[in-house]
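yo

u said u wanted the structure for the complex thing, so here. seqs first:
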Amino acid sequence: MSEATYSGNDIQLVVFKLGREEYGVSILQVQEIKRITEITRVPHSPDYIKGVMNLRGSVLPVIDLKKRLSLPPEEYTEDTRIIIIKVEEIVVGMIVDAVSEVTTIDQNSIEPPQAVVGGIAADYLSGVGKLENRLLILLNTDAIIGMGQEVKAS
Amino acid sequence: MDINQYMGMFLEESREHLQTLNSCLLDLENDPGNLTVLDEIFRSAHTIKGMSATMGFTTIAELTHEMENVLDMLRKGTLAANDDITDILFKCVDTLEQLVESVSSNSDATIEIQPLISRLIAIAKGEPVSGTGEPSVRQATGTKEEAVLHEGVKLDDTEYNVVKSARKQGLECYEVHVSLRVGCLLKSARSYMVMNALEELGEVIKSVPAVEELEKENFDNSFQVVVLTTVDAEKIETAVLNVSEVEKVEVFPSVLADESAAAPTPPQAETQTDKPVAVKKESSAVSKPEKPNTNEHTEKKLKGGQSVRVDIDKLDSLLNLVGELVINKTRLEQIGLTHRLSELVETIEQMDRVTTDLQTVVMKVRMVPVGQVFNRFPRMVRDLSRELNKEINLIIQGEETELDRTVIDEIGDPLVHLLRNSIDHGIEHPAERQAKGKNPVGEVRLIARHEGNNVIIMVEDDGKGINADAIKQKAVDKGMITQAEADKLEPAEAVRLVFLPGFSTAETITDVSGRGVGMDAVKTKIESLGGMVDVETKINGGSKFKIRLPLTLAIIQALLVNVSEEIYAIPLGTIDSTINITPQDIKTIQNQEVILLRGQIIPIVRLANVLNVPTANTQNDEELFVVIVHMGENRAGIIVDTLIGQQEIVIKSMGKLLAGIKVIAGATILGNGQVALILDVGALKQ
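structre next:
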């Protein structure tokens, strides 16, 4: 990891909110952060796919992250953002309630998800990071975008 | 040495020549005495030999050299072509292909050429001909002009006439004597560069030694060139001196004394054997063709000289940029419309014309004749028919039909599949055919042609056809359809079952009446290219596979329609017409909604239902818009809420994540930046 070069085991995270919880995703995967724009529904797509959006001339899918993590939906607000991430050549947007900051966390302070949470949602997490008295839930982006899962017409 | 800089050229040209060899050998097989074909083969082999020797690929040079010996004997008539000889020659070509590929992939794999060489030598010796094989070739083709010409360059009749008429047009004729530095490493490359430099200034009409000799480095350090040009001697001198490792250049105005016309003996002597023509063509392959008797070969080369090879990636990005431009143009159009600024609208109209032209040009640049794919099939069919002991006549039509480069690259495999199937399972053995009263020689047709905005490629055979009942049975056995479903199927429908995924694997399908090896792979491939494939068959009459492909993949005309709040694009190529109906016009047959259009029953699809559009229940309208589309040979009516209009759209992929979704073929960006989805009409029916 390139960010490990400047300070041992530290990784940099983009921190965002879903409801009252704080989540983090590696900054290396984040391409940009956009305000919510028009999203076109795609028929027969998995329910967690909100639709597709136009990012400067390319069309990319947008994931409703709360739906993916089985969290209760909320109205979009001024703070709602789309985080564009790139995972192994796949570029997708994720709708989040708000983006708060970029922070650095020591890898040693990250605990595996099974220890903290159970259930299906645990598959979409790669760990929980402790930062002073805050808890950052780290996303397993591979699982979020559904790598290895077939998209089937319903 | 910077041999690498010639590497790309070497590889591409070698491949071209190998292709020529392949197709000419096929011709030769059918018409063993054809001298023109033999000449062509000889030339190609010779060029490969020259190039590879220059590049230091001695194995290739060695093999082609032995080939040449045999070819030369064939050409001279001292040896008659027969199946064994062509077989060996085919094997040589295969080995050469391997050798060239190993050069290209930089692999060190040793490819054994000795057995082939010894067989070639055996053939050459087998006939008690004067030729010991080896040197005869080179000398025979090379010396004749050299012998006469050493001091001044002498011209033969044709050349003399060319010079004469050129002078009338105000061109000057110069003899250029070039000496290369002693110890020059790539003499042939340098001479080639000199030739190129001279060609930029005028026309090279002759060189001594001949160009092929120059290629083979069969000269000391100097050579002479006769050139027709408008520029003066000094310019020529500077141009040639610009080539590195040239030591000395002397330019003399050529004296066109009449005595040079009086020395046409050597060329005449050889006219009967066709050789001067061969040499001319050969030389024109490198220099510019200058003779009035330009034939196909030289013309092809001439074109080659004026074209540029471009990396396909660059073309792709060019196309992408043009796509962006089209999107922005549409956006501007909308702004112009809302603001009604006449100047803006005018400018946009201009821009519209320019972008349309630009787009057409970019599209054309990417177009490649399907012949590029087709030309490898004769060889495949030949090999396959031998292997299977069937006699097959492959007829290719419309190879000049052009298709987008990306489509061309992808279409090869499906076609191989279809052809193999036709030959393997379709065409019967000669005896069987005779028993059925057919011509023992089976016929496979590969036809390409334009049809509207599509290109149609057909693979047709006159074999035994596909047995619909056997196909049904197989599908039922495999549990893909129920017996009841099978009974309902029309034979034409049943045959299409071969396209179902999982229908066929090689072992099972041969038990049935044939067909089906990887048919679903064929279908998937063609659909991924935005095309369709259909099959028609007649027991004992043969089968016909029809592939319909879009001309281009990136920018299409589409009809935009509204369904509730959503906008969808339907490719214009699939639309027959649009009509208005009232709800009363809709009838049902077995719960399937249909309408009658000009006496034809057309099933109806309600787009809102198919796409699960969250609809505000507006279905009790007085008037319904129906878009009549065709999918393969079938038609269907799509009910939409409103028609927005026709527009040029740029097809964008939605990425891997959403790739598996049926019904949607892709997405596009509208003028206002909104994303609209493109319907996959072919998939609507399921």
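Chain B has a mean pLDDT of 76. The first strand of chain B starts at residue 172 and ends at 180.
cya
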